[in-house]
């Protein structure tokens, strides 16, 4: 079989994830044990598999490669690297059921997608992952709304004009902000304002 390795690294600020190189090595070892030739690698680096605005260009390229017959086997590190939305899993399962591709994962939670029981188990696991992602997104959004309602900063870099904790005003910077706002109201082009702001803050 002609195998493709599907590798995805989710954005994780705590750094607690398996790296792409380690994923690739483990997937390549599995393909070798299966006796498959690795003909392509699909790298979706720092891509979420859940959000509605998700962009997974290599996932789409992988599906196209399956449809064209360029690959007829896929190896991934774990099922959650492949899909965290039921819709994406179904796209892959359609191709598995039609015999266009076989899928292997290298973790201890391997599921045989070639069987009805395996596909059912995968659907349950991905549905649970999708709900977990939705719950997390809802909690994050609620926390952000609560911080905004209380006038607290949402995190990230310090906002210009405010102290690091977002409660105190840095008056020199506040004057610059007021000056920029006044220029906007006078109709000064934004590009010119941005240039001036870079000069003032450099």
In short:
With 202 residues, the protein is α/β, with parallel strands linked by helices.
Question: How would you characterize the overall build of this protein?
Answer:
With 202 residues, this protein is of the alpha/beta class. Strands 2-1-3-4 form a four-stranded parallel sheet, with helices on both faces. The chain is elongated.
Task: Present the secondary structure layout.
Layout: E1 2-9, H1 20-34, E2 37-45, H2 57-68, E3 73-76, H3 79-82, H4 86-97, E4 102-105, H5 116-149, H6 171-186, H7 190-201
Parallel strand pairs: 1-2, 1-3, 3-4
Helix pairs in contact: 4-5, 6-7
The H-and-E topology, N to C, reads as EHEHEHHEHHH
**Class by helix and strand content?**
alpha/beta
Sequence stretches where pLDDT stays below 50 over 5 or more residues: 47-53
Helices, by number, come to 7
Average pLDDT works out at 80
Keywords:
single chain; four-stranded parallel sheet; 4 strands; 7 helices; elongated; alpha/beta; 202 residues
């Amino acid at each position: 079989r002609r195998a493709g390795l599907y590798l995805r690294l989710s954005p994780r600020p705590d750094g607690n994830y398996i790296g792409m190189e380690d994923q690739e090595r483990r997937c390549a070892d599995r393909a070798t044990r299966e006796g498959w030739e690795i003909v392509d690698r699909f790298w979706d680096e720092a891509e979420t598999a859940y959000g509605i605005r998700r962009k997974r260009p290599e996932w789409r390229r992988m599906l196209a490669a399956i449809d064209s017959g360029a690959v007829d086997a896929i190896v991934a590190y774990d099922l959650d690297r492949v899909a965290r939305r039921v819709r994406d899993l179904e796209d892959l399962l359609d191709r598995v059921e039609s015999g266009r591709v076989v899928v292997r994962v290298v973790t201890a939670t391997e599921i045989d997608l070639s069987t009805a029981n395996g596909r059912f188990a995968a659907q349950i696991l991905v549905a649970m992952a999708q709900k977990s992602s939705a719950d997390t997104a809802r909690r994050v959004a609620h926390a952000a709304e609560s911080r905004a309602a209380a006038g607290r900063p949402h995190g990230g870099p310090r906002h210009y004009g405010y102290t690091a904790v977002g409660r105190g005003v840095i008056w020199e910077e506040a004057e610059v902000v007021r000056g920029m706002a006044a220029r906007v109201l006078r109709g000064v082009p934004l590009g010119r304002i941005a240039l001036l702001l870079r000069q003032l803050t450099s």
